[in-house]
Amino acid sequence: MVKEEQIMATFANERVIAPANDLTREYYDKSRYGEPLGKTKFQYSLVEGLYLFERGKMIIKTARSELNLDSFLKKARKAEPNFWVRYAVFKDMRNRGYIVKTALKFGADFRVYDRGVKPGEDHAKWIIYPVHEGETETWYNFSAKNRVAHSTKKRLLVGVVDDESDVTYYEIKWTRP
Fold first, then answer.
1. Which of 51, 75, 47 is nearest to 61 (CA)?
2. Active-site residue, 154 included
């Protein structure tokens, strides 16, 4: 049995960094994992790093040691308190065949591209906000999220994650009576 080649990456400053090579470029070209960081490196969000790690596609280390699942999660949760909820949504959407990228510049957690569409080829179809089912939201914040989606010409999805990490999606739209 031939072992599949893995990306060798480093956990650094709330990101996962890997050298640019044939494998990192292939994952980027096929499925848009990571973002080129100059010509010599690729940068992955923590959710992308965990997703590739769980699938045996990436080994992640620190300056001192190789990370296992528990040590990665501990570091990720320290960097992002809402990490597991965000990851549950990211993983579910990726498993459904969508490309999911961060959306900080849009004021959202993620932007989601329709199946078969890659970033750079067309615009994202949705912005998505992951929330835990036990969270509460003010009408003010809910309205702000809707305005962000509307102003960026994207559909608004709220991914509600339950205690078993199952996700239910709600699409919110503006209507004019």
1. 75
2. yes
